[in-house]
Amino acid sequence: MSAIEVAGLTVRLDDKVIVDRVDLDVASGEWVTVIGPNGAGKSTALRAIGGLLPFGGTVRWHGQAVDTMHRRERAKAVAMVLQSPVVPPAMRVFDYVLLGRTPYVPPLGRESAADLAAAEEVLAALDLTPFAGRRLDKISGGERQRVFLARALAQGAGILLLDEPTSALDIGHQQEVLELVDRLRAERGLTVLATMHDLTTAGEYADRMVLLAGGRVVAAGTPGEVLTEDNLAAHYRVKVRIIPGDHGPLVVAVRG
Ligand SMILES: Nc1ncnc2c1ncn2[C@@H]1O[C@H](COP(=O)(O)OP(=O)(O)OP(=O)(O)O)[C@@H](O)[C@H]1O
User: Fold this and answer.
1) Which keywords does the record carry (predicted)?
2) Closest by alpha carbon to 153, among 130, 185, 175?
3) Whose CA is nearest to atom 31 of ligand 1?
């Protein structure tokens, strides 16, 4: 069964069509990455799929239409890492990550020992234990980006929507974070829908890719099918060389 089914997804912002009749299916346990040039509509599509924006068409998570689900049900099903989320600046890292457990806390109740343990576990997995007591506005951008991912993972949802989850990370942490998500996918059958700009990295982790341009799907398939010199020249207006790599195509931009 598909974990995410998107049909005819259309999003208008300020009376402009930003996402235009997008169809997309992600199987349970699959990793699909959406790529495309700046302004293609990737973030907008992801936010709509996450139920954060009004849209036309249908979005189903595990068969259930997202617009018919209650907030708590949604948060148990899907966790999102958005670009630059708004955070209370004085909040401590641990308390922020613990917010990921909110859907499991009974009304007027408190987090259980299992909730605290879940937050500690993801902090450790992301090398964040030493930051647990630090304020969110007093850590680096890359550290904060890992904290956002930690909160999403603490949520324990089966579907993870990641909007540029590694844009602020150094190459080591980038690999560490993506490896962790991939390991969780293998261990817990997590389904991943991500957007990414680094095409080589995107191709290394995705089972399938979708190339979005002008709000439309212009190519979809395996990384080898999507990351071609012709596709990238046509939609990014760049000359690239594609070099076969061990885990997918290596994409190198070349001059003139
Ligand atoms: N709230 C808004 N109101 C009007 N237009 C918007 C709004 N948010 C985004 N847009 C426009 O929608 C288009 C798609 O934006 P979106 O952020 O989805 O693109 P993207 O593919 O994620 O881009 P990037 O790679 O730069 O992050 C852009 O032209 C953008 O200017």
Assistant:
1) ATP-binding, Nucleotide-binding, Translocase, Transport
2) 185
3) 39
* Residue 173, pLDDT score: 87
Q: Map out the domains of the chain with their CATH numbers.
A: 2-253 (3.40.50.300)
In whole angstroms, what is the distance from residue 126 CA to residue 122 CA?
Answer: 6
Mutate to test the pocket of ligand 1, among 9, 10, 11, 18 (most ligand atoms within 8 A of CB): 18
CA of 111 to the centre of ligand 1 (A): 37
Output the CA–CA distances (angstroms, integers) from residue 234 to 219, 229, 231, 237, 255, in the order listed: 11, 8, 5, 6, 16
The mean pLDDT of 14-34, rounded to a whole number, is 97
* Pairing, β 31-35 against β 208-213: parallel
Model pLDDT, residue 142:
87
